[in-house]
Each structure stands twice: as structure tokens, then as C-alpha cells.
Here is the input.
Amino acid sequence: MTDAWRRFRRYQRGGLNVVRRRLAGLTLFGENISPEVKNDLYWAHLSIYLFFAGYVAGRRVLDLGCGSGYGTAHLADSGASEAVGVDLDGNNIRYARKRFAAGRARYQAGNAERLDGGLGAFEVVVSSNMFEHLNDVDAALDGVARHLIPGGTLIIAVPPITDSEAMAHQRSLRYHRTNLYAGDWQAKLRARYGSVQAYRHLPPAGRSLDFADPFPSEPCAPEFQFLPSELDELRAQPTLTAIFVCADPVQGAGEDSAARQRPSVDASNAAASTALKLSLLNGAEITSCPSRATTGIVH
Here is the structure.
């Protein structure tokens, strides 16, 4: 097979994939992974959700930037008490509700920078390759902190930017609005969590991956490896994604910058805030809530 013929077949298959996405009701453009195209790129993204799944058994989970919803469904199938997927794209939400919304998975349109207080409280929040798409990651991180119960866990996967070459590449991607070095991500997270552990994301041993290949490939998500790493190892060793597991939320970390300048609340107010989160987690009806948790439709 000549190189020209290979290029033609890939171009042809890419066009077919666009048609499949269109018929499925998905947005045609953007960095949106779906099971409509189960290629190497899909399996790599699904592998991140297999890693997330190790933290969700029996817990209420928020999947922030859930995309087409396949990962949220996997978390529900992995034993989460409830998995809630939130995404900005209404097409993604409609697709996810049609294909995956059953049992313990549900989906809601929402903006990660302005999370709806009506979502309630969560024991685990996960986000795969979404934060780099935001304009204001601090607003999103603060919003997550407001929705995590005391002792909750945040896990995010972001591009592994460790040098100027990687930074230049990420900045060339039109949908990536916030590009940070791995050390900067770690600093933002350590300001909000008492424990932050980085992981490297490695491809299956002995398998060559082509993330630009539009053709379906053999399933391999369980074969990806996730290794705990120090920041220096992220800088020195190759990794597909930089993953941070964050525990022990710092009290008050979810307040906005203006709130941080005000005197801290007294113990009774802090206890009331904790009680509110726990009541939301247990499914209590919201009759009143602090202004920072106002409900409403977000996009």
C-alpha cells in the first residue's frame, strides 16, 4: 500500500467519522471524544476514567466536563452511588442522556466556571482534559471546592506541559485557553488541598499508538499504566497526561478572592456550612442556601 493510498484511506475514514458524529447528534468540531470512533485516542481517554474509577465506589461523583458522557457512565458502572456529568455543550448532554442515562448516571448542562449550586455536594470530583479549555481555572477550582464535602477528593487530568516546546504546541491548539506548566497546576492545587499526588499516564507496554488514526483499534484501555510521580519525574519522563489526585480540601479554599480578604467565619457558621453540604449529599431538599450556592441554569 502506497503512502498516497494510506493518506486517502485515512481522509476517507475521517469523513465517515464526521458523518457518524453528525448522525449521532454530536458537535462536529472541537476536541470531543466519543464511542462513535473507538480508535487509539478514545481508548487513551477511557483509560483515564478507569483510573478515576478506583476512587468512586459508594461515593457521589461529579464528572466535570463530561463530554459525550461515556466516562460518567463508566464511573456509575464502577460502583459510584451516583455519577453526575456536567458539560457546556448541549449536544453532548442530549447524546449522553440518550445513550447512557440510566441507573446511577445522569447528565446536566453547565459551565464549570459557574457551577450550579443546585448540583449539591459530592465526595469525589473528576475532570479529564477539561481545565485547559477554560478561561478562568481559579473560578472553576473554587467552585469545585464549594461542592466537595470535607474530606472529599478532586482528580484532574491536564496536558503535561513541562517545557517550552510542549507549551508552544498547546498554545497552537485553538480550543486550549489556559495553558499552564505542570508545576503551576500543582501550585494552584496545593493552595486548596492538603495532599496533592501527581501521576504519570503511560501507554500499554509494547504497543504503538497513533492518536491521529481515524480507524477503530483493538481495545486497550485497561493496559495503560498510571505511576505516582514527583514533579521532577513529570518533567523528566514522558507521560501522555499529567494527573493530580487531591485530598484534604483546605477550609475556605472555595471562597472567592474578595471573601478571602474578609475575616474568617466563626465555628458555628463553619459547622452550618458543613451540615449543608452533608444534607445535600444525603438528598435533602434545598429550602435555603448561602448566596454562593445560588441555583439557576448555567451553560
